[in-house]
């Protein structure tokens, strides 16, 4: 099933990178950058934890409701931790992470195929501008909208349902952010790449579901370009 195939390629990418020092160091560099930013974002977000919790539900004084309140507070903490990591990831992507991610993808191609897909204009500024331009519509805007819907959904009776659906949707777009590297490098039209996402949504759901685990997702996001590139290589060879 495509869902489990997505999980497999995500994990496979990490183990593949561990065997190749170049990929390992680039992945660790991404990890350190996102980890530091996540710590900063977490500190900022958790500063507002009690205020947000008070807006949702004031802490009861006694009884079973106190335990339910603490359970809800713990869930909110996990949600905020996930938001912090995603925010750190997107921030890193817009400044330098997307360039490292693309380089990891090209390095994976070279290791497996002995060659890589390059751009028509290989000057550093041109490549960087192109990568950031691709990053905004395929990851930044969709994930920010999804997180916004998630936060608003917390204040509605359908909060738990909206939370789950929004989290899965964010995972799908984060997965596509990695699997789109190869098609984008081939200069495929954006509408064709979006159609590819629609046809492989179960794969992307599986690839992205592991990104929903707080803090572990930092490791997986750091090496995700490797697994995503392996997926395209194996798909082409089938």
Structure in a nutshell:
With 238 residues, the protein is mainly α. It has helices at residues 2-18, 21-46, 49-56, 64-113, 124-153, 159-179, 181-185, 190-199, 201-209, 216-237. 83% of the residues lie in helices and 0% in strands.
What can you tell me about this protein's structure?
- It is built from 10 helices and no strands.
- The radius of gyration is 19 Å and the shape is elongated.
- It has one domain.
- The longest helix is centred in the middle third of the chain and has 50 residues.
- It is mainly α.
- The model has no long low-confidence stretch (mean pLDDT 81).
- 83% of the residues lie in helices and 0% in strands.
How far is it from the N-terminal to the C-terminal residue, by CA?
16 Å
Biggest β-sheet strands, sense, barrel: none
How many domains make up the 3D coordinates? 1
What series of H and E elements makes up the topology?
A: HHHHHHHHHH
Kindly estimate the percentage of residues that lie in beta strands according to DSSP: under 5%
Structural class: mainly alpha
Gross morphology? elongated
Total number of helices: 10
Average pLDDT over all residues = 81
Question: Which range best describes the helical content: under 10%, 10-25%, 25-40%, 40-55%, 55-70% or over 70%?
Answer: over 70%
**Number of E-type strands:** 0
Spans with pLDDT under 50 lasting ≥5 residues? Answer: none
| Rounded Rg | 19 Å
């Amino acid at each position: 099933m495509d869902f489990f195939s997505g999980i497999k390629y995500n994990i496979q990418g990490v183990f593949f990178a561990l065997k190749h020092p170049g990929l390992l160091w680039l992945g660790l560099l991404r990890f350190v950058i996102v980890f530091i930013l996540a710590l900063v974002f977490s500190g900022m977000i958790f500063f507002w934890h009690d205020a947000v919790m008070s807006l949702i539900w004031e802490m009861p004084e006694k009884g079973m409701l106190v335990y339910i309140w603490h359970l809800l507070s713990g869930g909110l903490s996990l949600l905020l931790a996930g938001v912090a990591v995603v925010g750190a990831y997107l921030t890193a992507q817009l400044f330098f992470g997307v360039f490292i991610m693309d380089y990891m993808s090209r390095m994976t191609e070279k290791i497996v195929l002995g060659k890589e897909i390059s751009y028509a204009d290989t000057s550093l500024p041109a490549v960087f501008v192109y990568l950031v331009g691709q990053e905004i519509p395929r990851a930044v805007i969709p994930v920010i909208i999804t997180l916004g819907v998630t936060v608003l959904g917390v204040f509605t009776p359908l909060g738990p349902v909206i939370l789950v659906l929004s989290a899965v949707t964010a995972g799908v777009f984060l997965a596509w952010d990695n699997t789109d590297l190869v098609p984008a490098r081939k200069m495929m039209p954006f509408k064709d790449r979006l159609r590819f996402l629609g046809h492989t949504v179960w794969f992307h759901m599986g690839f992205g579901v592991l990104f929903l685990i707080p803090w572990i997702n930092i490791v997986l996001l750091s090496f995700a370009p490797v697994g995503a590139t392996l997926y395209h290589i194996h798909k082409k060879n089938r």
